[in-house]
Write a sequence for this structure.
């Protein structure tokens, strides 16, 4: 029918724009940042996640750095213990092994938790480290900040503006939800975007801003228009389950070496079974793991039970698990009013987040959701190999398109009107 044809045409145009951008990026001449060129300086793209903050330049395929949102603090004090200065120390998750991280550091010094900024001073220091290392001239650069919908208060928006304009002097600031930018990276015009991240999961029915930029809302209105039901479970809880099992069953010591073992088991061995945890199911062969002391342990039950908590855990506030949250988000979505049915949303799902990389998770999510969804619905999910960085990649694409200049808040507008004119994508 006409609605389906328009939907297919819109998707094709959106995917064409993304393809043209990526092709142009690869075919363009390689000119380094800061060179003498008539082209405008690329935007700074910063994705503020609960596990890591990804920083880089618009137009690139991947972020330049991925600082873990753990930090150590060295305090300089006078003889009377008066604090003079705090030095923050950050690590890039791609350059340094997990073995250097103390297992308590993430809980002791949280910068961002469940998408909400807990330590603005530390986050500001992290941004400054990236800008100084790359010799960025902020007065010539726009910046795209990705901030979770759960961090969408007016106070947070004002803080983003104050740091960007008053501290660093950026010429323009654009704030976007990571779900929106993950959708841009997928090339779809509409989808239910599900983030399965470090410490929470959330599903958001989203319309792509490339689709005529027809849905623009303020940060306050976003929570009213888009009904979200976050579930406080993620990769952190899988790691904690594995760690406690190893300590209680195999009597390992809780130290940095154990942290390395836990992350190795989670990333290389964990997988999710589509049909639950019935002990009579022979769904996986016996798995063995050799510890540093050459002791061999069985992982078969551990890798199954540790990932099962992603689906068995129910949020303390809502009582929902991941599948419940996704289904409720679709049913309560306001984009029904723009001509998108529940069947169209089930047919367009986008998955992102580091924890979503666990083998079998996508299939299990389909099984769980199918039980609660409309009979006859078709399920298709975009789960790109690089989905851990999908929001950053989408923001990189978005900031390089010609229409980007029409969005965001300039430093002059901020001086005149404050953050009230900021529109959140």
């Amino acid at each position: 029918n006409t609605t389906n044809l328009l939907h297919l045409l819109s998707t094709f145009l959106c995917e064409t724009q993304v393809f043209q951008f990526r092709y142009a990026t690869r075919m363009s001449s390689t000119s380094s940042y800061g060179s003498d060129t008539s082209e405008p300086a690329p935007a700074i793209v910063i994705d503020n996640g609960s596990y890591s903050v990804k920083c880089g330049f618009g137009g690139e395929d991947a972020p330049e750095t991925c600082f873990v949102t753990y930090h150590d603090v060295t305090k300089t004090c006078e003889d009377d213990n008066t604090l003079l200065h705090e030095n923050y120390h950050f690590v890039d998750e791609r350059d340094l092994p997990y073995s250097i991280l103390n297992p308590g550091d993430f809980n002791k010094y949280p910068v961002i938790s469940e998408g909400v900024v807990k330590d603005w001073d530390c986050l500001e220091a992290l941004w400054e480290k990236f800008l100084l290392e790359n010799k960025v001239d902020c007065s010539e650069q726009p910046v795209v900040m990705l901030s979770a919908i759960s961090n969408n208060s007016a106070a947070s928006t004002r803080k983003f503006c104050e740091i960007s304009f008053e501290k660093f002097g950026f010429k323009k600031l654009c704030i976007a939800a990571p779900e929106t930018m993950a959708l841009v990276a997928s090339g779809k015009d509409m989808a239910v975007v599900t983030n399965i991240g470090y410490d929470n999961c959330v599903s958001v029915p989203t319309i792509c801003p490339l689709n005529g930029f027809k849905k623009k809302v303020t940060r306050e209105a976003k929570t009213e228009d888009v009904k979200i039901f976050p579930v406080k479970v993620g990769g952190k809880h899988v790691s904690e389950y594995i760690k406690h099992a190893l300590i209680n069953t195999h009597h390992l010591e809780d130290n940095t070496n154990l942290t390395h073992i836990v992350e190795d088991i989670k990333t290389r061995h964990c997988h999710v079974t589509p049909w639950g945890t019935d002990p009579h199911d022979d769904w996986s062969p016996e798995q063995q793991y050799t510890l540093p002391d050459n002791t061999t342990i069985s992982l078969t039950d551990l890798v199954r039970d540790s990932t099962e908590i992603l689906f068995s855990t129910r949020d303390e506030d809502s009582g929902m698990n991941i599948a419940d949250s996704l289904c409720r988000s679709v049913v309560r979505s306001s984009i029904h009013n723009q001509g998108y049915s529940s069947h169209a949303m089930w047919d367009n799902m986008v998955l992102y987040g580091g924890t979503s990389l666990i083998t079998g998770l996508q299939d299990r999510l389909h099984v769980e959701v199918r039980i609660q969804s409309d009979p006859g619905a078709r399920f298709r999910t975009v789960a790109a190999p690089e989905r851990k960085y999908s929001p950053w990649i989408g923001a990189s694409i978005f900031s390089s398109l010609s229409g980007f200049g029409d969005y965001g808040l300039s430093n002059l507008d901020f001086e005149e009107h404050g953050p009230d004119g900021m529109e959140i994508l």
